[in-house]
From TrEMBL:
<feature type="binding site">
    <location>
        <begin position="89"/>
        <end position="91"/>
    </location>
    <ligand>
        <name>a ribonucleoside 5'-phosphate</name>
    </ligand>
</feature>
<dbReference type="GO" id="GO:0005634">
    <property type="term" value="C:nucleus"/>
</dbReference>
<dbReference type="GO" id="GO:0006207">
    <property type="term" value="P:'de novo' pyrimidine nucleobase biosynthetic process"/>
</dbReference>
<protein>
    <recommendedName>
        <fullName>UMP-CMP kinase</fullName>
        <ecNumber>2.7.4.14</ecNumber>
        <ecNumber>2.7.4.6</ecNumber>
    </recommendedName>
</protein>
<keyword id="KW-0665">Pyrimidine biosynthesis</keyword>
<keyword id="KW-0808">Transferase</keyword>
<feature type="binding site">
    <location>
        <begin position="121"/>
        <end position="124"/>
    </location>
    <ligand>
        <name>a ribonucleoside 5'-phosphate</name>
    </ligand>
</feature>
<keyword id="KW-0963">Cytoplasm</keyword>
<dbReference type="InterPro" id="IPR033690">
    <property type="entry name" value="Adenylat_kinase_CS"/>
</dbReference>
<feature type="binding site">
    <location>
        <position position="168"/>
    </location>
    <ligand>
        <name>a ribonucleoside 5'-phosphate</name>
    </ligand>
</feature>
<dbReference type="InterPro" id="IPR006266">
    <property type="entry name" value="UMP_CMP_kinase"/>
</dbReference>
<dbReference type="InterPro" id="IPR027417">
    <property type="entry name" value="P-loop_NTPase"/>
</dbReference>
<comment type="subunit">
    <text>Monomer.</text>
</comment>
<keyword id="KW-0547">Nucleotide-binding</keyword>
<dbReference type="GO" id="GO:0004017">
    <property type="term" value="F:AMP kinase activity"/>
</dbReference>
<feature type="binding site">
    <location>
        <position position="207"/>
    </location>
    <ligand>
        <name>ATP</name>
    </ligand>
</feature>
<dbReference type="GO" id="GO:0005737">
    <property type="term" value="C:cytoplasm"/>
</dbReference>
Length: 224
């Protein structure tokens, strides 16, 4: 809208236009987030890599950030994170959200145009979700949840197979039993909450990687 046109409006109308423009500017700056959820081994990380290659997203895996924090020299949370991961338990949300927030801010500091994020393995439980809503609401919009759906058996088999080379302390049958329980008891209810809001996009994750990605593309092409 040109300055001349704007100055011809009444003061009240002008203030409405200014407010709308300000809100639009703030919204433009908000991060646009897709949460990526599914059982352990459902293929979240694998598909996120493909999405990054084909779409302009930044991939942040909550699990990867926690593992990096566990290994960081001088971390006060190393032992706590280690114990939680081995036991398939969810790390207190304050720790995970702080890591996610820092990674998002760092990404945007390096390139302010990077506002599209895939947040993989989060929110894992209602505390994760509540913490996110409290801490991140003004800074990020959750567009939808990409849900990789497959049976527990497929999840376990893939993780056991991954465990032959991953070096992960939780890719073994004992940890996996616990991870599946945590997934069913804590993460599925979060997915159900988003489902009620019409925000879940479900992908059959049991087929081959290429087929899963073809379905992911169909979903993303509709959303963008
Ligand atoms: P998540 O991040 O959900 O735990 P990953 O992407 O790490 O899962 O995948 C778990 C394991 O299963 C990896 O070894 C990966 O190579 C393999 N994998 C991923 N997607 C598929 C698929 N669609 N079919 C067969 N194996 C897969
Ligand atoms: O997603 P990923 O399989 O890498 O997560 C590994 C582990 O990290 C989980 O089983 C859990 O112990 C921890 N985690 C967590 N909170 C999250 C994501 C992961 O506590 N939001
Ligand atoms: Mg992963």
């Amino acid at each position: 809208m040109s300055f001349r046109l704007l100055s011809s409006l009444s003061a009240k109308l002008r203030s409405v236009v200014y407010r709308a423009a300000t809100v639009a500017l703030i919204d433009m700056k908000k991060a646009q987030v897709v949460f990526v959820l599914g059982g352990p081994g459902s293929g979240k990380g694998t598909q996120c890599v493909r999405i990054v290659e084909n779409y302009g997203y930044t991939h942040l895996s909550a699990g990867d950030l926690l593992r990096a924090e566990r290994s960081r020299e001088g971390s006060e949370f190393g032992q706590l994170i280690d114990n939680h991961i081995k036991d398939g338990k969810i790390v207190p949300f304050e720790i995970t959200i702080k890591l996610l927030k820092k990674a998002m801010e760092e990404t945007r500091r390096l390139d302010e145009k990077k506002i599209h994020f895939l947040i993989d393995g989060f929110p894992r439980n209602e505390e994760n979700l509540q913490g996110w809503t409290t801490i991140m609401d003004g800074e990020a919009d959750v567009k939808f949840v990409l849900f990789f759906d497959c049976s527990n058996e497929v999840c376990i088999n893939r993780c056991v197979e991954r465990g032959k080379s991953s070096g992960r302390t939780d890719d073994n049958r004992a940890s996996l039993e616990k991870r599946i329980q945590t997934y069913l008891q804590s993460t599925r209810p979060v997915i159900s909450l988003y489902e009620k809001q019409g925000k879940v996009r479900t992908v059959d994750a049991s087929c081959a990687v290429d087929k899963v990605f073809a379905n992911v593309k169909t979903i993303l092409d509709k959303e963008i």
